UniProtKB/TrEMBL annotation:
It comes from the Bacteria. It comes from Salinimicrobium marinum. The lineage of its organism: Bacteria, Pseudomonadati, Bacteroidota, Flavobacteriia, Flavobacteriales. This is DUF4153 domain-containing protein. The keyword Membrane applies. Keywords: Membrane, Transmembrane, Transmembrane helix.
Amino acid sequence: MKNEILSHMKDPGDLEKLYQKNKVQFKREFNGIYPELKGNHAADFWYERLNFRKDIPKKRSNTELLFVVLAALLAGVTAKLPAIFSIDDEFFYSRNVGFIIFPVLMVYFAWKNKISSLKSGFIALSTLVGLIYINALPAVPESDTLFLACTHLLLFLWILFGFTYVQEWNNNTGKRLQFLKYNGDLVVLAALICIAGGLMTAITIGLFSLIGFSIEEWYFQNIVVFGLAAVPVVGTYLTQTNPQLVGKVSPVIARIFSPLVLVMLVIYLVAMLFSGNDPYRDREFLIIFNALLIGVMALVFFSIAGTSAESKRSSEIWILFLLSIMTIIVNSIGLSAILFRISEWGMTPNRAAVLGANGLILLNLLLVTAQLFRVITKKTDMEAVGKAIALYLPVYFLWAIVVTFIFPLIFGIN
């Protein structure tokens, strides 16, 4: 092969065919004769190509690993507070589940990104205000306003956490999209960790039962609680130190599921016409319908965020465009249903929250769909689509503030 390489040095096409025929032998023979060819542009190019090595990942910091272990333990202890201090489980978890997860992640990224003391103070103060406020609200189990405040507090904390990840919100759409991609990667990795943890739990309980020990209650109250609380922290650490671990998995999952969800959505909407159920009079159906909307919207946004900086095939862009249109249709049905219910039965905290959320989501989807259409017509690129998502995130933050902190003042807790 050595002579063939030398004879084809001036013909890139033949040299490529020779390489593809037997890559291992080609590399060995080429490296053997390269000293004779050094200085030749074609030879130098092939040498760099054959001997390119990706950067070796930096050695993990023991300090960071210790930090993650302590953060995971802290999250676990926080999750165990009801058992430690005899606090009612429903009261604690309904209001404070976000404080088990997000504060430790905020501290992790604030430390990792070396955020200034001023920004760290703002994030800490905002989190503390949320903690005091939500736990000070009256305990009325059937209150819709309380339920809305608790659920939207999660969105409030999530975007505060995003601030520690992005560091700057002004004109930093790239980092915002990275934050969305990180969330998608974390969901994938957390699911894998939970599956592995579930298998370990089943094996452990099964093995102990074979020797006459029933450890289910103790295991779930201690090991499982600590394990679940630690999953976001451990998953985050793995995504940051091993980005290649799930960096290629999430886009593939989105690429596979986007067309499947598109087909499912079309079939579902057609089937809905013949089912006899509709979101206009069936409250439970409307709730499921809006959950479907949020799930599909999240798939669209995470898919775009994960690949906005890369070239996408025309077919993938078309699928995202059609999926966005279908999501707009679903949103419009949900929005018209809630307007119908308001006109028939008046305004309630739930209807006000759904109306506001659907309206904001619809506007966001219209902006994204318009940019996707411009990509299809070659008037812009995928970066513009990413900006349409990233620039809208502060709007959701403001809405979370309104529902969490202002709705209880308007509607009361009853």
